[in-house]
Every structure is written in structure tokens, then in C-alpha cells.
Design goal:
With about 500 residues, this protein is of the alpha+beta class. It has one domain. Helix content is about 30%, strand content about 15%. The chain has 14 helices and 18 strands. Strands 7, 8, 9, 10, 13, 17 and 18 form a 7-stranded antiparallel sheet that branches. The chain has a 3-stranded antiparallel sheet with strand order 14-15-16, with no helix packed on it. A two-stranded antiparallel sheet has the order 1-4. Strand 15 and strand 16 form a beta hairpin. Helix 5 crosses helix 11 and helix 8 runs antiparallel to helix 11. The chain is globular, with a radius of gyration of 24 Å.
Length: about 500
Amino acid sequence: MTAPTGVSPAPITLTPAEHEQIARVFEHGPSLFSLLSTIRTRRFGLGYQSETGEEEMQAWSTHQPIRQREGPLAYSSAHQPVPLTEVEEALLAWAALGPNGIVAADIPVQGDLSSLIHWAGRTVPGSSNDFSVDLFIINDAGVHLYRPGTERMAPVEINGPADYWKILHWYRNGRVKVSDKRPDVGWFTAPPGTHNVNTMGAPQYNVNRPGSTWFLPVGDVGLEWVNLLLSSYQFSGFYLQDPETDKPAGCDQWIRPGFLEVGFPIPTFDELALMLHSTQAACVVENMRLACEALGLGGWVMGGYSDDLVLGAYPEVAQGLGFSHLERQPAKNPSRTATCQGLRGVLEAHVTPSPWFGSAEALVNHVVNMRYARGAQLSREENWNERSGGPFNEKTLEHVLEHPRSHIPDWVVQAAIDTVKYIVDKYGCAPAMINPVRAKFSCQAHHVDLDYYRHFHAAPGGEPYLAPAQLLSHFRDWHPGGADPYEGSAR
């Protein structure tokens, strides 16, 4: 393997406490199987309320106060919220989808190796390693996008104590500020004239609370869709088919043996792209859930909310994250789905028409160039492999770049463009049957209010059964010198 030729950033100096805390989870934490044994969704955090019947209003909300109905689990935390520290958030963000080195890229060239958009590895798997899922970090300081980039410093990034600084480096330098306050996601949002409808779901009363950190994976499903379309046309022989006519969706001239041979209904193809996104987002959330368990934090996995509202599809109800949405004609929107275009300069989704992709040509060619542009993994100019030192040795890389199946034929690009044009003409946008941006599954991390569980839950060993050792010792380990809300409380 050739040595990396790229310029790596200068290491940052960790304080002894920062180094000790990062070392704790890498060197001394519970094993994976121990974590799987004790892992639970501990939804109630410091400063939270449950079924109290008391009216309250959050500072970020521009809407009416809310009152959760009284119930048998009525409880109001006696503690003030304790936000996560920088190290805690950095570890969770890295666990979610942080850089971990270089992928194996062990797909046969004849089996669509070229569909891998990146050879940079992350802690999470993803369809074609396309990095189509980003992570938004929402806390008391506002909203940040965590995106550490596609360059890699080593085949295995965290290979020992000398690499621990990277966790904070990526957190500090890989974030983009989106807002200086928490998003308004609607506090008891309801359509006009209704009395028992809640678009943010029953758990909303503790979503986005002070002190919590809401890790929100946001997926560019449109990127998965376009990349999958190119791969299908080049390697699978499937073509998109109009479900109403059972005829090719604009790609008629390529229907012949050896090119495109079997129809694939547009709605089914759209659903496949959504499934690929959902799998990647679920892995992000599960990584965070395991990381929360290792750190002794509460990790609340949730999806019972309107992600369209969170993204900003209904500003008359709640501003959300302020993403722009396409105004679609009802007659051309058979699935009645919202169509999110993204957020300028932050997440410009792969959908057309949009401010960043005004045509089918612009959309398809952009995804093609992600594979072949200067500096990319299949480029002959400043190749990513040569710059990063892998995954292939020099001889293998040369063979990969020379092989014709590593390159998308011109007819495939044109067939994809023709298909996208057809879909836009008929339905108003592409993708058409699904929202090209999704944020349906997420994880909120917080410091657990142990007294809530001491009050309600069985405690065969003196403490609630869902309080593992790393939770009981969390404040001693991670917040030394501060007050420990787990000591001296009523049991």
C-alpha cells in the first residue's frame, strides 16, 4: 500500500480529563455483548415531566402552552437539566457516523464496484457508501450539522491512544452551524378544527427539552435514488416503467437485449430507495444507542413524529429546520407527498427541479461526477486512493481504473437523464413518489433522572434493574467535582 500523500491536520492537544474519558470508552468500557444485555431506552431525563397535568411552555416554541394529561406515571423531575459535555457529544456523533478509515471496496468490478461513491469509511454502513445520511446535532446552543468530510488520515483512524484527539478534532472542525437556537417543531401542533390530533406524536412533551441533545439523521434519499438508477441501468438491465401505461419511462430507445430488458415500476423503485435510506438511518441510530449505553446516558430512540414538520414543510404550523419545499400541483402528486429540496449551503438535496439542480441533466451528471471528478476514487487525476493510501495497492488501482466496467457508458447516463425528464414532466419532480429528504428516525441523548426509575421501577438489587454500573457512576466519571444527582436521593 502506498503511503498517504495528503496533508493531515496538526493534532490537537487533549486535556488529561478529555484523554481519560475517551480512553475509558475505547479501553475500559463494557463489551459489546454486555451492552446488548443491559441496553434500554431510558426516556426520562433530568428536568423532564411525565403525565403531571401541569401547563408548560418551552422557550423555543412560538405556539400555545401544552398540558400533558394526568396519568399513573405522573412525575416531575426535581433536578435541573445537565447538558452533555463536548466530549460526550463528540463521542456520540463519531459513533453515529464518524470517520473510521478506508473501506474494503471488495465488490467485483464486474459486480458494480463503481457504484461506491466514496472509499472513505464511516462507522455506519450505507448503500453504495454514498454518505447520503447527515447528522444534525440539536442542543441548547442551537443546531449544527456534523459532517467531518471525506478525507482520511489512515486506513484505521482510531488505532490507539495517539489517535484519540481526532474525536474532538472532527467534532470541532466538522460541524456547520445552522441555527443559534433549538428549532420550533410545534408544541401540540394540530390541524385546524381538530382537538385530539398531534402531528408530533404522544412523546412530544419531552422532545427537544432543555439539556437534551437531539441527534437527528437527515437523509438525502434523492442521492440514493439517482445512484441506484445509474447502477440499475448499467448492471441490472432493469428500467423504470410507468405504472399507468406499463411502458418505459422515457427510455424507450434503450429497450433491447444487452441494454435495458425488464420493467421496474416507478413507485416500487422509489420505495426501494427509501428502504435503503431507512436501513442506513437505523444503523446510525443504533450506533448512538449503543454509545449512550456505554457512556451511561439515556438514549431515547424515536420516530413517532412528523419529519415533514420537523424539516419545515408546514411553516404556518411550526418553522422546524427551515428546509425549502417544492410547491407541487395536486394533479401531478399522486402520492400527496411533500417534496423537500433541502437547505441552501447546508444540505442541497438531489431532487429536480430545485435551486441547485434545475434540470435532469444537472442532477444526473452531478452524481456521475461524484465518481469521476478530479480527486474522486475513479479519477485519473489526483486519485483519492493515491492521496489516502488505500484501499488498493498501486497495481490493483491501475487495473481497476483501466477496466471498462469501472466507467458508466454514455448510453446509461443518457438513459437515466431521459427517465428523469419523463418523471418530472409527468409528476412534477424526481424522485416523485417519495420525499427526497427524510428525518424520520432519531435519538435524543440526556442524563437520566434516576429518581424517576427508583420511584416507579422494580429494584431487586437495591437500584432499578435498568441502572447498569456505567450509569450509576456516570457523574463521578464524566463530571468530576460537580454535583451527583444519583447520590443522596430518595430510593
